[in-house]
Amino acid sequence: MFLLPSNSFSQWVNLYSENIKTMRTIVNNDWEKLPILHLNSDDYITISFDEMSHIYNRFTYHITHCDANWKPSDLYESDFIEGFNDIPVDDYENSINTTFEYTHYTFNIPNDDTSLKLSGNYLVEIIDEDGECVADAKFSVTEDYANIAASVSSNTDLDINGRHQQLTMSISHSGIRVLDQTKEILPYVIMNRDITNMISGFKPTHRSNNKMEYSHCKELIFNAGNEYRRFEIIDMYDYTQNVDRIDFHTPYYHATLLTDRPHIAYRHDNDHNGRYLVRSHNAGSSDIEADYLFVHFTLISNRLSGGNLYLRGDFSGNNITDNWKMSYDEEMKAYTITALLKQGSYDYQYIWLPDNGKGSMTERTEGDCYETGNEYTILVYFRENGARYDRLIGFNTFVSR
Asked: Are 192 and 274 in contact (CB under 8 A)?
């Protein structure tokens, strides 16, 4: 399976205003979890973001229920919300002792004003005083009717111990009445939380009354990629991992990372598959005490033809847009980009997007190596004949290592 972006989906987090930064969705205060809650449980999701000033802005959030393809469901608000929608974000604090002034906004779902009645996908839009959407975030709510077993092998239908990984999986469903498995049970697969490459529409190779098996499906062959690169800036004066230097150019800090080069062979590292953690050393609250700084990335490489190079990670929302496109410096013989990021620990990759939309996104910069520990998430939706929405009846997340 050649993983290239699709225009069908946007990512878990999308920013539409230059003044909005560092939008995060954290479940039960665990920054490594996917934004998925269990229906009728004590689970909660915290959505937060920074507005780059100390001026109060009145933001509200609007919740929409979506189908498996993240399109609005054919439901009334009263069908999926208990309480109110369009609630003001009234929990906010100004940054303290930072070179960049910002205001940190945060809210939880569910809360005293709003709770969710149905499983499925949800879109939360952040609306400013002018009625414009400045950012949005996605999360899901699951039931527990599907048991999902899965494994990944480097022995694929394309190569053996080569550039690919192949997913084999089975779905057992009990407690729900299914008349037509192939039409009513809708499995989706996401690799490293990249919704734009969400795979669906593949057919089971074997079926029984309450079980569906998927083996040797060409749709479930993935370019293996390589482990994410990492850097950490939690102290402006005591920096270590992959940081060459930090300079203060009035009025802001600049961090220059060690020069990167394309990977050819597998490179083992204990990465977090693209995640990032906001953290400032000795801060009482990193949410408002971590500073922003300009981070300079450099990839030594010959100029590549037939496409563009991008910087990608959860900090960019995994979005491949002009904001994250790298420029080529002829004098340095390198691709460069500068990103404004909040202090913390970060995973990142250099991604190649061919003009013709064919081929691997990682082969030319990171390499494709079967040993890579990729994170796979299987989401199983159920739409009963005549139903108006897609229920999420189970999910499984695991790392191929």
From this structure: yes
* CA count, 13 A, side-chain hemisphere, 289: 11
Report the domain count for the chain: 3
Residue 359 falls inside a structural domain: no
pLDDT digits (tens, 9 = 90+) for 10-57: 689 999 999 999 999 999 999 999 999 999 999 999 999 999 999 999
> Domain range holding 395?
146-224+374-399
Q: How far is the CA of 350 from the CAs of 12, 42, 363, 365, in angstroms?
A: 20, 38, 10, 6
Residues 101 and 189 in one domain: no
**Is residue 364 situated within a structural domain?**
no
**What is the distance between the alpha carbons of residues 175 and 146, in angstroms, rounded to a whole number?**
9
Could you identify the residue written with the tokens 């920013």? 15
- Provide the CB-side half-sphere exposure for 320 (13 A, CA): 21
* DSSP run (H or E) holding 88: strand 87-88
Task: Count Cβ atoms below 10 Å from residue 188 Cβ, excluding itself.
Answer: 19
Q: Are residues 20 and 117 in the same domain?
A: yes
Same domain, 252 and 341: yes
Strands (E), 301-387: 307-312, 327-329, 334-342, 344-354, 375-382
Of 124, 142, 160, the residue at which a domain comes to its end is 142
Cis bond before residue 187 (omega within 30° of 0): no
List pLDDT tens digits, range 278-326: 999 989 999 999 999 999 999 999 999 999 999 999 999 998 899 999 9
Is residue 275 one of the residues assigned to a domain?
yes
| Domain containing residue 278: CATH number | 2.60.40
Q: Which two tokens stand for residue 79?
A: 């069908």
Cα separation, 275 vs 190, in Å, equals: 15
Indicate left, alpha or beta for 18 from its phi (over 0: left) and psi (-120 to 50: alpha): alpha
Q: Are residues 251 and 347 in the same domain?
A: yes
Using left for φ > 0, alpha for ψ between -120 and 50, and beta otherwise, residue 315 falls in: alpha
Peptide bond into 354 cis (omega under 30): no
